[in-house]
Predict the structure.
Amino acid sequence: MIRLIVALPAEARPLIRRFGLARAAGGEFAVWVAAEVSLVISGVGQAAAASAVARLAADGHRAETAWLNVGIGGHRSLPVGEIVLARRVTDTASGRVWRPPQVFEPPCATATVTTVDRPELEYPQETVYEMEAAGFCAAAERFARAELIQVVKVISDNVNASPERLTAARVAELIEDRIETIGLIVERTAALTGLARPSHR
């Protein structure tokens, strides 16, 4: 089973198309499913991401389940559109750190990811700033081995491109432009569970 957690509907749309997902029954969260893939739109923030993980886990989970947080983030120097796989996730509020093991060859660059409670507009460090990864990691580690929990971010803003100019259409475009690489990361993480390659359209 593959579980995808995204914050925004615009981030979800390219993934829904890629994996041929269909809307599930209504509830607190928007959930989309296929045979071996589930996606939930969590909303923004750590608490929302953690609740979304719990929502998917409540559908029944196996130890051999791949969990991925996919979304956008800002970085001081990386160009807009760059995709990275997190090698370290830090929660600025608690100081907790996660180091997702990368036991497969990443199809993209790797970077540190820092979870903040509000949008970071100054980019003081060379890290990806976003608002969900730490909550996602803290919740997902209750249900899966560390190497099956991965964080994927596409750079949406930097010192030369303000996040205040982002639109839903632009967010969807950024994810769509990197959908093949995201698909590879999903497939390589899923392979660690013994699943066959996830179907997609």
Remarks:
- The mean pLDDT is 91.
- Residues 2-191 form a domain with the Rossmann fold fold (CATH 3.40.50.1580).
- The chain has five helices and ten strands.
- The beta strands are 2-6, 22-23, 30-33, 37-41, 66-74, 83-91, 97-98, 109-115, 128-130, 149-157.
